[in-house]
Design brief:
Layout lengths: L13 H22 L4 E4 L2 E4 L1 H5 L4 H23 L6 H28 L8 H12 L7 H5 L8 H22 L1 H22 L14 H22 L3 H30 L7 H28 L3 H8 L1 H29 L1 H5 L2 H52 L22
Antiparallel strand pairs: 1-2
Length: about 425
Amino acid sequence: MKQNHGVSRQEIKGLYGFRAILCLIVANYHIWQQSWLPQGFRIAGRWISYDYITRTGYMMVDGLILLSGFLLFLPHARVMTEGGKPPRADHFYIKRLARIVPSYILAVLAALLFIALPQQLYLSPKVLWKDLISHLTFSQTFFFQPYQATHLNGVLWTVCIEVQLYLLFPVMAFCARKKPGLTLGTMAALGWLYRAYVYFKIPDTAMYINQMPAFLDVYALGMLGALAYATLDCWLKKAPDWKRWMAQLAATALLIIGLILISSVLGAQSKTASGDNWLAKLRLGQLYYRLPLAMGLMGCIMGLAFAPKALQWVFGNKLMRFFADISFNFYIWHQILAVQFAKHWFGIETLHNTPGLQKAFTLLCYAVALVVATAMTYGVEKPAANKINQWLKKRERKNDYEGSETGNTEQTTDSLLLPAEGGGAGTD
């Protein structure tokens, strides 16, 4: 029984490339940590450096969390502006599990069986089990060793934070639909208060700067952006052509302003890591600059959402779509591969002092990570997700039939259940 939900499901093409670039910046930071390859290029005899971007690449994790809040709330925002039934919480949890868990579990077990155990990295069974169980339950950020000194996979803490936000998201989305100002304002205030407390009251911030509450205002900003996008998109559909052209011009300007703000924040953050206690200063800078960075990133999201078609194509072409498709697996595999290559194949000291090896190492890391990510995405993630989709469709058909018998058919408008072209940017 086919239903018309009355909610638009067009894609936002530019966000494919946005996600891909964020992921690449984070990956470049992790690979550079091993190689120390000079970050820049030479044009007409002049050296153009982007070293400050690489050194602060870890901050683009904030952008991935912001984008997640935007994409996941977008179907709710469209319901608020266009009507229809909101996405169901049970479908949301099932789809998130299908997207995250198979690839994540495989990455954890591969790190355990092929790296940690053969290299005898654990000093005791107690440490091993704590590391493993906390990773399998997405609770590693609560404990020092699994979070700060894991022998499994150092980047997986970000997946842990995302899952913690997923658990709360249906409640946050429900409240935001009913009371958007109160809900998003409360989330923002909680994020600010948490970071302020850590900034001013906690001497050692290592365990606290990236806990889930530290991102609540970033997530709220993403949700607010989704509501703004849905409202403007609904208005522009009925607007004359000249207003659409003006919107595209304004979007291009907003994108440029967002990029300038991001560059300024990264430049300021790169200067915090100097002198005594440089690591502590760097962490405090991360707390201090999180909100302005998120605002710059949000400007880019909104700019790309309404950008001219030519710019949309640059960020939404087939190559960008492909990389956005494999970005999750690329993200969870790139660092552990780089660390192993540097440790066993190149040697850290030799690598740091040999330009040719630095370039070869960097190319190898990207090439192997891309191959592994492609294999994991199309061999594990997507087959598992397809099985879940088939099961959900069968259940929906059964519910539709029973609803037609009773005259009480429940409609759903969860764009996360749709193919890539229907899920916002198809990347979250």
